[in-house]
Fold each of these.
Amino acid sequence: MHRRILVPSVLAASLLLAIPASAADYVPGAPGIGDPYYPASGNGGYDVSHYDLRLKYQPKSDLLEGTATILATAKQNLSRFNLDFGLQVSEVRVNGRKAAFAKAGDQELEITPAAPLERGRAVSVVVRYAGKPSELKIDGWSAWHRTPDGGIAAQEPDSAVWWFPSNDHPLDKATFDISVSVPDGTQAISNGVLQSQTSRLGWTRYNWRSNKPQATYLATLAVGAFDITTDTTANGLPVLNAYSKDLGDNAGAARASVERTTEVAEWLETVFGPYPFAALGGYVPNVTSGYALETQTRPFYSPRQFANGANVSVVVHELAHQWYGDSVSVKGWKDIWVNEGFARYSQWLWSEKEGEGTAQELADYVYAQHPADDPFWTVKPGDPGPDKQFDIAVYDRGALALQVLRNRVGEKDFFAILKGWPTAKAGGNASVSDFVQYAEKVSGKPLAALFDTWLFETVKPAPTGPAGTSAGRARVDTRPAPPASYRKIAETDTIHAQEHHGR
């Protein structure tokens, strides 16, 4: 028998390893995830993998009652951690045990578990709460839409604070199960696949599932009286579109646009690659706002988007976000161009496909509309600042940058970049610099100067034509005629105009 002999130094080291961390080794998680645009957004110290939301909503009173179960992993030794949430909380449990909790400011829920959480430990958090979302104001602002027959949660850069506790930043994506009980005769629309619905004692419960990582601001809830259409795509994906029953004169145009969702998605697959999620659709509630939003798998459209008739271009924009913005999300909100520049450019490509003006013609026209002294050129799409995050320059100048890239690298490499990026980064997060590096890798060309000129400089760049020279149609002294598609594209300029707020 071999006897192991431990010398004193080895014995001491082994004893140290066996001693649990002291209380001094556990510290509170940060009250923000570190985004300079929105310092209060998100939290540090943990990573969420799944949200299970069990809700009950009464449209007449706007009362929302909920139990949120959050599954996470501690990323540091935690004595305390925060969730972003604004409604009234009655109980919190962490790993089954009651936890102390306190409200800090408008949106921070500070939770102190009965026992500290070791780094790497699986954590379950149960939060019971209730409140009227329409009465919650943060900096005088609300993300909740009260409607004549219900309520809607759909906003950017955040809306979760108004209806469920979360780590509210795109860096922490998770899967979702959302179960909502509403009075019979009322529907509850959310993300993903409708797993089931059951009725009992005057209430109907709708059970929705999103099985791919989803940012919290992309989670949506719509309660009201809807007309619902369902179908399946050629690939077997379930399609569900919903329309409030009181859209008035906009009803026909809304349906004529959103009912083309499957057609648009199938075309986008030829540009961006396979559709990244398990469900498809859209919804048009009876709200007074004018914007649209890429809520995952089921975009939100304000009725006013269709005030001038059908507009498939807005559907193209929001569905393009399913690849650029939803599947591949921003690392920080300064990287908004990775979402919006591509969604706008998809509208230009749709125009090209429909024979209503090429992307180059649209680029020439947009370029010519803004003289050198136009403030348009002072906005940096690659880092616009929180007050300009949804400025039209992020969209149009952002799309111009992509047309210049197309001219520089050629058709083959350009479309290889557009299709390869969503696959390479699927389910994750990315920055502007990540995209630049990816484009350089695929094309084999240095592109940093191009992107610096079009995304970061605050002066009007020199015009560039299809060959990458200064001989393009977008000359300083010419005013090209607007392409046929331009008016419909311009009608979507307010697509995100009402979303941004100071936080």
Amino acid sequence: MLDLAGRLREWIEEGREFAVATVVAVGGSAPRPPGAALAVSGDGTAIGSVSGGCVEGAVYDLCVQALHDGETRVERFGYSDEDAFAVGLTCGGTIDVMITPFAAGRPGEPAGDPAAPSAGAPPVPRPSRAAAAFAAVSAADRGEPVALARVIRGPAELLGGALLVRPGGTHEGGLGGHPALDRTAVAEARALLDTGRTGTVELSEDGSHCPGGLTLLVESAVPPPRMIVFGAIDFASALVGAGKFLGYHVTVCDARPVFATRARFPDADEIVVDWPDRYLRGTRTDRRTVLCVLTHDAKFDVPLLKEALRLPVAYVGAMGSRRTHEDRARRLREEGVSASELARLRSPIGLDLGARTPEETAVSIAAEIIAARHGGTGTPLTGTDRPIHASAREVVPQAVS
């Protein structure tokens, strides 16, 4: 549900009641990953998606039902051989969806801790559960790193239990049950949050790591991953647009102030005039960071790549012809770059799409970044029998909220 943080926070502040349907497990060729959500407010407004269209109508109805009866439930949707256009996934996969109703706090009341329902009104989630979920939504909307762990399989009294976890290990809410369960859940959620991943965790009800009767979905909301483009050339301008489209926070860095200007890169989040290697040494990177070296000049490329190839980042690519690559590789080896470090370099950068223009080249580079992130091959899907979606290849996508 954290992928809908912006709109859900508005609903919470407006005091709306709503139900959230969240994909909690997928199998086969499923269109949306765990964590994808659809929400329905009390007035019938819908936001988000759990299937790209296949089962949205049925999930919408389940959200409306949850708003009336106050029950949290998990439903499975799969392919219908008898009627591919009935309530099922026409792509052939299966998804499990958890539907949870929430009663938002009214103005002047603590969020997630509504007044007691009147006679005949449907029950609502425990205040601690709602409060933890609401706090996670607010934190995610502010751009703060946060994880939300919820029970998606287990005893009925624990289903939907929610725990907010921050990077330092502080947490809010609780899952209920054995006291050790929250401690274990916090540790597992922190591990996923550190890598910006959303995934499931199997535990026992007593909090032990032995898989038992309990499954948690941990949603991570982290600041957008960084794309740093070195070299303020025309190809860089097109790549900035592609990076923004993919959800990256894009920085352009060049040592030449005449080229690194806002006029040339209006879509960039940040423009830095500095020597590339010096900037890279002093800036923040992580395992989701993408580094694209377009400088095409040995005096910039070699010291920069020497630094880049020793960082634990997601992707390092460098532009240039094959001859340029061979010369660059030789210079890097002379600088002490090892064979294993050099093997991380994507050069010439991009996939072979026959690209010619800056825009086409940007698509080529973006395609390689996507393939690297999700374990794709870059080959045409036509004529292959590999699963289409990453979940079927057991690759957990990194969040880019």
